[in-house]
Write a structure and sequence with these properties.
By secondary structure, this protein is an alpha/beta fold. It folds into two domains: about 200 residues, UDP-n-acetylglucosamine1-carboxyvinyl-transferase, Chain; about 210 residues, UDP-n-acetylglucosamine1-carboxyvinyl-transferase, Chain, CATH 3.65.10.10. It is built from 14 helices and 24 strands. The strands form six sheets. A four-stranded mixed β-sheet has the order 22-23-1-24, with helices on one face. It has a four-stranded mixed β-sheet with strand order 2-15-17-16. The protein has a four-stranded mixed β-sheet with strand order 4-5-3-14, with helices on one face. A hairpin with a 2-residue loop joins β20 and β21. α5 packs parallel to α6. Bound molecules: ligand EPZ. Ligand EPZ binds next to α1, α5, α6 and α12.
């Protein structure tokens, strides 16, 4: 396995280019199998999760070719409609293949995703939506088996106790696109990644209205065609670098961002007393020596994203005062707290709330990555901690951050990837 060694305290400068969005690419790669012909996707990030999704498509019989950010998918050879546990257990996001498989082939056998460090990953909303569309769903020895003679549109309330569900919305939107008749999804996810998926499906010939709102209307069509499509930039990667700029008190440019996807972050940074400048080309950090403590609650888009919660916590460990983070999307998503405290932070947990008492500085030590975004929080802390920080098990980071150490090194960080002594 590999680890990062980071020498803290270095100022950053220059600019960083944001890669394509992992959470837009995954459901779009999945949906590409619904087309009758080849699809070509541009700006696809070279991440472990993308490689896993490609492996599953190849396992099913699709032909794929991925180089220099361009992914070609020819679904014509697909002959089996199952995703075994060894794939799904490494990436819960692969569940977004279920909707496309059922839409086009009317059959699917998919391992239940199981839980992960950020908490249980239930799929009751996915199953409810599929059943509403006339799909028969059984649970056979930990596998979801779906079958349908035909898929009929319906009115579906898709909200759960934690609000909307991103991948349940993706799954039902895909299944409804090739259904007979009209489907209304009430309490759909408004995430930019869902809007990107809807735009992709519409380019293929789908008829979708209202994406980006909590009510999406879909008129079923008979067929979809393969298309060329550009993946949107990754708002979570962008937010991570923006916080790196402020934490290291550096002026850096984060390029290729859609700033409208980050207004909740900008709002909180301004509330902390910081300035930020942004336009259609880039976001620029305007740093200060200190920043104020904040109260943050994570919510579905356009609220503050749970995927930036760990990184924001890292930032708040050095704020003036006591901050409070309430995690309303994944209430157990605090695996990073223990490791941040080992770096000298002062964080206590009370259920789904984290109380962060600002400290003057962090001190480098050995820490362990455990989840994609928790690991990003440790990298941010390592950039500012005094001395050396070693982060082990960085394969978690490779799932969602393309060329992380290279991008940070170009900005002036002292970070290197080394093999862990066995
Ligand atoms: C997507 O996961 C993202 N993954 C997650 O990003 C992200 O944290 C999450 O959305 C929330 O924004 C991908 O897009 C690949 P949800 P998803 O269904 O769709 C509950 C990352 O780091 N729920 O929106 O699986 C669920 O337990 C990853 O890039 C049900 O109760 O998340 C949670 O509390 C981590 N029943 C809430 O809804 C269901 O059937 C939101 O989850 C489904 C979800």
């Amino acid at each position: 396995m590999e680890k990062f060694i980071i020498e803290g305290g270095k100022k950053l400068e220059g600019e960083v280019q944001i890669s394509g969005s992992k959470n837009a690419a995954l459901p779009i790669i999945a949906a590409s199998i619904m087309g009758e012909g080849k699809t070509i996707l541009h700006n696809v990030p070279n991440l472990k999760d993308v490689q896993t999704m490609i492996k599953i498509l190849n396992y099913m019989g699709a032909k794929t070719e991925f180089k220099n950010g361009v992914l070609e998918i020819d679904p014509s050879g697909i002959y089996q409609f199952t995703a075994p546990y060894e794939f799904v257990s490494t990436m819960r996001g692969s569940i977004c293949l279920l909707g496309p498989l059922l839409a086009k082939y009317k059959t699917a056998r998919f391992s239940m995703p199981g839980g992960c460090v950020i908490g249980p990953r239930p799929i009751d909303l996915h199953i409810k939506g599929f059943k509403k569309l006339g799909i028969n769903i059984e649970n056979e020895e930990g596998y979801i088996v779906g079958k349908a003679d035909k898929i009929k549109g319906n009115i579906i309330f898709l909200g759960g106790n934690f609000g909307s569900s991103v991948l349940a919305t993706a799954n039902i939107m895909c299944a409804a696109t090739l259904a007979e008749g009209e489907t209304i999804i009430e309490f759909s996810s408004c995430e930019p990644e869902i809007v990107a998926l809807a735009n992709f499906l519409k380019k293929m010939g789908g008829r979708i209205y209202g994406e980006g709102s909590h009510l999406i209307r879909i008129e079923g069509v008979k067929k979809l065609k393969g298309v060329e499509y550009n993946i949107i930039p990754d708002r979570i990667e962008a937010g991570t670098y923006i916080l790196a700029g402020y934490m290291t008190k550096s002026k850096i440019k984060i390029k290729g961002v859609i700033y409208q996807h980050l207004l909740s972050l900008f709002d909180k940074l301004e509330e902390a007393g910081l300035e930020i400048s942004y336009n259609d080309e880039y976001v620029e950090t305007i740093p200060k020596e200190r920043w104020k403590a904040l109260e943050i609650t994570t919510l579905p888009f356009p609220g503050f994203p749970t995927d930036l919660q760990a990184q924001m916590m890292s930032f708040l460990t050095l704020a003036d005062g006591i901050s409070l983070i309430t995690e309303k999307v994944f209430p157990e998503r605090f695996i990073h707290v223990g490791e941040l405290n080992r770096l000298g932070a002062d964080i206590t947990l009370d259920g789904s709330k984290a109380i962060i008492k600002g400290v003057n500085s962090l001190r480098g030590t050995k820490v362990m990555a455990s989840d994609l975004r928790a690991s990003a929080a440790l990298v941010l802390a390592g950039l500012v901690a005094e001395g050396t920080t070693e982060i082990s098990r960085i394969y978690h980071l490779d799932r969602g951050y393309e060329n992380l150490e290279n991008k940070l090194s170009i900005l002036g960080a002292k970070i290197k990837r080394v093999r862990e002594e066995s």
